[in-house]
Amino acid sequence: MCASCNTHTAHKGTVRLLKVCLVLLCQLFVNCRQNTEYVYRDFLVGATCEVKYYLDNASTAADITQEIHAELVRLDSLLNRFSDISLVSELNHAGRAQVPEDIRYLFLLSDSVSRLTDGLFDISVAPLIEFWGFYDHEFANPDTAKIQEMLKLVDHREIRFQKDTVILATGMKIDFGGIAQGYAADRLAGILRGYHVTSALINIGGEIVAIGKSPEARSWRIGIKNPRGEGLIETVEIETRALSTSGDYEKFFVVGGIKYPHIINPNTGFPAREFASVTVFHDRAAVADAIATAVCIMGPVKGAKFLDSLGIRGIIYYEENGVLQRMETP
Predict the structure, then answer these.
(1) Residue 25 resides in a domain
(2) How far is CA 177 from the centre of its chain?
(3) How many domains does the chain have?
């Protein structure tokens, strides 16, 4: 080969090398620009709320934080059953109320999950939660006759709409506790995506939404609490995904050596007692939240079959002869 050919070949190789270096430098520059972490924390919608997101523009980040806070305050004013002036309290007191379009959607989503789970998820379970004492922390001894009376007030099919007005059957009360925090996480994810945030982690009382990857360009690592001890029992990885964990360790009473968790079976009126914790993965945190509640009631075998039939990933911990067991689907 002639010397000029060798020179030309070497020149082309140098150019290619320079192009590769330029691309890597550009990627490094972009990564550095996006590596500023912004954190929002507050206690709203009945839970500790934490949002971490990564952006290269402080002014835009301030707008995002303001919008996140405003949305959580708005949802709290609508869904907080412990507030005398919330929409839910108005509805429970008057039996009817006008609702904004997004809350109408939440009612419809709740109804869809209720039908999917044969009524095991039901926002009209509030009278039973109240009877058992989980609102005022005064445990009520099981009274089968009283529970049977309460069950007559629990039926998601009796929640009706007339245009933008929701109407409850006489004596019925609702509680969005099994879906509200997941819904709030989804709403915040929508805000972040609207600002083209590509890396964020939202945690609303344990309802998680991950946007993209972590700032280290790896999957987000989420810990699952040990339901029978301190610390974590395992860690899972997610990207652009949501998950919800419900556990019998969150709110419960122990009477006569028997644990009564706060998740009530709408069909029997009694607390669910065949689970330790349930983690459900889904594209939407609200759906994961509601389905996790239903699976807790189903118990491990039926719950695993249910999740598997829908192709939904779930991790179920339960006790068998005093030993903690684990099941995973699909």
Answers:
(1) no
(2) 11
(3) 1
Q: Which residues form the domain of 319?
A: 36-329
Q: For residue 154, what is the domain's CATH number?
A: 3.10.520.10
Question: Considering the domain boundaries, does residue 281 fall inside one?
Answer: yes
Q: What is the DSSP letter of 166?
A: E
Rounded to whole angstroms, the Cα distance separating 45 from 205 reads 9
Give the Cα separation of 199 and 221 in Å (integer).
13
| Longest alpha-carbon distance in the chain | 101
3-state class (DSSP) for residue 289 = helix
Nearest in space to 188 (alpha carbons), one of 33, 83, 47: 47
Indicate whether 20 pLDDT > 90: no
- The pLDDT tens digits for 121-142 are 999 999 999 999 999 988 888 8
| Residue 195 burial (10 A CB sphere; 0-12, 13-18, 19+) | middle
Contact 263, 293 (CB under 8 A): yes
Could you list the beta-strand ranges (E) of the chain. 36-44, 47-55, 96-98, 160-162, 165-167, 199-204, 207-212, 220-225, 232-238, 241-247, 252-255, 258-261, 277-282, 314-320, 323-329
Q: Is residue 26 part of a domain?
A: no
pLDDT band per the 50, 70, 90 thresholds, residue 143: confident
Q: Is residue 296 part of a domain?
A: yes
